Amino acid sequence: MTLADQTAATPAPGQAAQRGRRADAERNRAAIIEAAGVVFAEQGGTVDVREIARRSGVGMGTLYRHFPTKDDLLATVLGQEFSSWLTDAHQQATAVEDPWQALTGFFEQMLAKQGRNRALVESYTAAGGPTESCAQHCYAVMDELRTRCVNAGLLRHGLTTADLVLLSTTLSQTVLATVDSQPGQWRRLLRISLDGLRSHNTEPLPEPATHTDPPSSN
């Protein structure tokens, strides 16, 4: 290597300092997100961000540089976690041959996940997910699972994807209401609810009160 090559390969002092600051910033951001994930799961979305800063080992100024508001941090943390879970749950459901087991397993995974994360269940009961894109993705997965069950003749006539979404929201409310006093109580209500979805129930369903379109992308 020539002297010119060595000079070109060696960063200037200012460049090295800039890279160091960038690496520090990335580590701080990762620490904030990791700590926030734990704190939000434990205490919900109303937690004081000072607790997140304390656990992540950064100052409040650093936290606010990365996330100007708590809503920004909450959406980032829960969006990542929800998307990761939903992708995994969808893959597992796709791998299950029995359409009914795929659908019921998805519900069980969703509610169990929410039972371990207070902020996540809060976001789902309020808006169907931490972000609109999460809600749309979840709707699409439920629609796919419903279609599989319909094609196999396993669901009662007239059941829509919107019905399944509303049912999941209702069950999520149960998770939220009983997470401290009766954790796991949702499993009983889930079994009762799932039985009502089966095709052996032939009594006509009431007409839906609202449209059954998926969440808007606007």
Summarize the structure in words.
By secondary structure, this protein is an all-alpha fold. The chain folds into two domains: 1-68, no CATH class; 74-218, Tetracycline Repressor, domain 2, CATH 1.10.357.10. The protein has helices spanning 3-9, 13-43, 49-56, 60-66, 70-95, 99-115, 118-127, 132-151, 161-178, 186-195. The relative contact order is 0.09.
What are the SSEs and their pairings?
Blueprint lengths: L2 H7 L3 H31 L5 H8 L3 H7 L3 H26 L3 H17 L2 H10 L4 H20 L9 H18 L7 H10 L23
Helix pairs in contact: 2-3, 2-5, 5-6, 5-8, 6-7, 6-8, 6-9, 6-10, 7-9, 8-9, 9-10
Please give the CATH architecture of the largest domain: Orthogonal Bundle
Beta-strand level of the residues, as a percent range? under 5%
Order of helices and strands: HHHHHHHHHH
Straight-line N-to-C gap: 56 Å
| Main sheet specs | none
Number of helical regions: 10
* Number of beta strands: 0
Q: Detail the poorly predicted runs.
A: none
Mean pLDDT across residues: 89
Helicity range of the residues? Answer: over 70%
- Choose one word for the global shape: elongated
What is the assigned CATH homologous superfamily of the largest domain? Answer: Tetracycline Repressor, domain 2
The secondary structure category is mainly alpha
Please name the CATH topology of the largest domain: Tetracycline Repressor, domain 2
- The rounded Rg comes to 23 Å
Q: Can you tell me the number of structural domains?
A: 2
Mind telling me the CATH class of the largest domain? Mainly Alpha
Domain HTH tetR-type: 26-85
InterPro entries: Homeodomain-like_sf, HTH-type_TetR-like_transc_reg, HTH_TetR, Tet_transcr_reg_TetR-rel_C_sf, TetR_SbtR-like_C
Organism: Streptomyces camelliae
Pfam family, one: TetR_N
